Amino acid sequence: MDPSSIKQNNRTIYILESPEISLSNTTLLSFDLYRRSSAIMLQICLDSLTNCPYESPKLDSKVFWREGESILLPTKTKKVYFVATQWKRFKWLAIDNIVLNKGLGCKGREAAASAAAAGTPNSNSNSSKIEEIRKFFRKQRIEN
Which InterPro entries does its entry note (predicted)? Predict the structure, then answer.
């Protein structure tokens, strides 16, 4: 058995624990999540394994990679736990691109980078970058 897993009631629980953190502001934790089965789920718990404000969304059979999943971490947060609960063997998930942001999540940073790459050298380039980021987030709200 994996040393980071626990067997309990025919489930295997895997826990990834952060080092202790100190936040000066409410901070966005964003990540990408890969999952192909509802026989495994992910929770994100803050400071203890009983305070888990994030749970992986219902499985969509056409979407395996969920990019830009996120959760707001209150300033008082000291620890973050990623908890994967597996009900059947050989059902796995993956977590990638874990980022602590004080503003934009992973997708927002990508939009900012693409806006910067498409920017023009004139004095309006900052406002055009900001507008490009706003358009990106409007599009995300419509699609979701």
Answer: ConA-like_dom_sf
What Rg value do the Cα atoms of the chain yield, rounded? Answer: 18
CA distance 111 to 104: 9
From the list 98, 108, 37, 38, the residue with the least C-alpha distance to 73 is 98
pLDDT for the residue numbered 94:
93
What range does the domain containing 136 cover?
104-144
Put the strands of the sheet holding 65-73 in their side by side order. Answer: 65-73, 27-35, 93-101
**What 3-state DSSP class applies to 143?**
helix
pLDDT by residue (tens digit) across 26-40? 888 999 999 988 889
38-42, 48-52, 101-105, range with greatest mean pLDDT: 48-52
Identify residue 41 by its one-letter amino acid code.
Answer: M
pTM confidence score: 0.65
| Same domain assignment for residues 52 and 18 | yes
The Cα 86–Cα 13 span in angstroms is: 6
Q: Is the separation of the CB atoms in 28 and 70 below 8 Å?
A: yes
CATH of the domain at 59: 2.60.120.200
